[in-house]
Amino acid sequence: MKRGLVLEGGAFRGLFSAGITDVMMEAGIAPDGLIGVSAGAAFGCNYKSGQHGRAIRYNKRFARDPRYSGVRSLLTTGDYFNARFAYHTMPSELDIFDGEAFEQNPMEFFAVCTDVETGLPVYKQLTKADDTAYDWIRASASMPLAARIVRLEGYLLLDGGVTDSIPLKYFESIGYQRNVVILTQPLGYVKKPNSLLPLMRIALRKHPKMVEAIANRHLMYNAQTAYVAEAEADGRCLVLRPDTAIPIGHVSHDPDAMERVYNMGREMGRRRLEDIRAFYAGEKVTKQ
Description:
The structure is a single chain. By secondary structure, this protein is of the alpha/beta class. About 45% of the residues lie in helices and about 15% in strands. Strands 1, 2, 3, 4, 5, 6, 7 and 8 form an 8-stranded mixed beta sheet that branches.
């Protein structure tokens, strides 16, 4: 029985997930595989490297650092989150990512991206902690309009959340039978059409399949939440989600707001810790 962990994205809402996963790491819970989308990949990689606390630490440390993120970076590089600093300098020099631990941990780790040319999801298993892996994670988190298209290993890539925001079905398809799914929206959330679609049609006019995927994203997302609810009712997954809307935007430079979101996740993780243990042990867990 392969035990999986599925992490939705959501930019800084992902710090809620990081709070939960840090509690899980501290409790010694070790799933067999993890799949993350966007922030779910960027923060979730710390699970495989065993670095609880790292995601909130570096985000607070560099929250107001223009080298890390901001309008200046967007105007000068095309990326709101500076590609070189955030995905290479920081993990290699300033808040070091433990690549050796990542590679030695048998946990399978997947990042989800979107192929700009086909408008379809790409699922990339990452086994090495190198610059290529960091760029796959960057691509997974590269939101249209806020980031350049990432050219990598023959692909043109952007945010995986556009085409597979909650990749439970994919993880089940490769053999993960019992999955903990961490969502970053509360129960009952319904995604609406993207209000920035007119701008995206212009910015991505050379990539009509990507534009089509963005236009249909709300339909995909709402179908996925329905699928998750069905899987939860069947006992195939355990879902953890915030009780209310997470009080932070897609971008933030407020360390205190980051800490509050992270602590929401830690509280949820502590509250549901025994449920997680029981579910991974094969026991039936009552839906909350």
